[in-house]
């Protein structure tokens, strides 16, 4: 998901990126509960039929499914903030305290790969891929917005 946020008069604009989520937290819990209930139902039927290892397998399987769903949920919490102002273009990622990319907007190049649509900001030999977790149509939209924002920032810098 791409959200454009104005930073204030004369200070530029921010794009806040986050991966698309198909489910809410409540739906994730309901999914796990449904899967766990089905596993335990089958395990109890197996135990009743004489398979003494079925409950242990169901417990192990429940833990593995819970860990996989938790990992998937954590992947959805990633964030990128691209800030384009008159003085700097910065890329911030959710888990890092400092920007992973910082350059003057006049020197920043926007590069879009033809094969996979990946988007990179580059300046002075430093490259930074942005929006890697977005789908192809969202990446195209991101590239268009970034191009427009960089051109607007360059126009502001050349007038002053």
Explain this structure.
- Strands 1-2-3-4-5 form a 5-stranded antiparallel beta sheet, covered by helices on one side. Strands 6-7-8 form a 3-stranded antiparallel beta sheet, with helices on one face.
- It contains 3 helices and 8 strands.
- α1 packs antiparallel against α2.
- β4 and β5 form a beta hairpin.
- The mean pLDDT is 89.
- The longest helix has 24 residues.
- The protein is rod-shaped and about 80 Å long.
- It has 160 residues and is α+β, with helices and mostly antiparallel strands.
- 44% of the residues lie in helices and 25% in strands.
Report the span from N to C terminus.
34 Å
| Average predicted local confidence, pLDDT | 89
Neighbour order of strands in the largest sheet: 1-2-3-4-5
The number of distinct helices, counting runs of at least 4 residues, comes to 3
List the secondary-structure elements in sequence, H or E: EEHHEEEEEEH
Q: Which stretches are poorly predicted, pLDDT < 50 over at least 5 residues?
A: none
Taken from the alpha-carbon principal axes, the silhouette is rod-shaped
Outline of this structure?
The chain has 160 residues and is of the alpha+beta class. It has three helices and eight strands.
List the helices and strands and how they pair.
Layout: E1 2-8, E2 12-17, H1 25-48, H2 54-75, E3 80-84, E4 89-93, E5 101-103, E6 109-112, E7 119-123, E8 126-130, H3 136-159
Antiparallel strand pairs: 1-2, 2-3, 3-4, 4-5, 6-7, 7-8
Helix pairs in contact: 1-2
Using brief descriptors, characterize the structure shown.
3-stranded antiparallel sheet; 160 residues; 25% strand; 5-stranded antiparallel sheet; 3 helices; 8 strands; alpha+beta
